[in-house]
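Q: Hi! First time doing this. I have a protein sequence and I read that you can turn it into a structure. Is that right? Here it is:
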Amino acid sequence: RRFPRGNRGIFVTDLMRQMFKSTSILGQMTTSCPECENILGSEPIHSTFVEYDPVNARGIQSIQDLVQNWLERQCIRTCPTHTCRSPLQVTRSFTSVPKILPVELEGDVVGVHIPKDMSVTFNEQDERSFRLSGIIYHGEFHFTCRFFDENGQSWTHDGQRNSGMCKHEGSLADMSSQDLKELDNRVSKIFLYTVS
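A: Yes, that's right. Below is the predicted 3D structure, encoded as structure tokens:
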């Protein structure tokens, strides 16, 4: 049986999908051609989980870039209209701005900047500020986390250490982007941003 009622583990990405899935429609994802305004399809959005996609992550410099790419990006596919053939665009629009943005980052994160605060533009005009509130790390079949309280203090949690108690690390302000990418030989996997 699988987590949480069994002894088989779960991938943190699968857990995030479940935690941030909604039965309500949160918005729409539309595929369209910006050149000829042809709309090729629209589907409801049921999650705010920003899943990593290596094709769309090429050339990103920061998590903020990754989130903006997730909200609005150019596709590899082109418009099927015979006279157009322009690259298609995928746009996610939300009925209300999400309060939590969980962001998955995989692979080589060495050159990717981890902002402590970031601005994200929703629905082409609604700019909101988010702050880094937590990070989930993975390694050796075990997950740990680091979270940041509203006073900017950094705490870590590893259920296998410190009798399951959180450990105070210091101030988030004193931590570099590189410091945030690792915790006790585990690599960062999920970044949790909350509206500030």
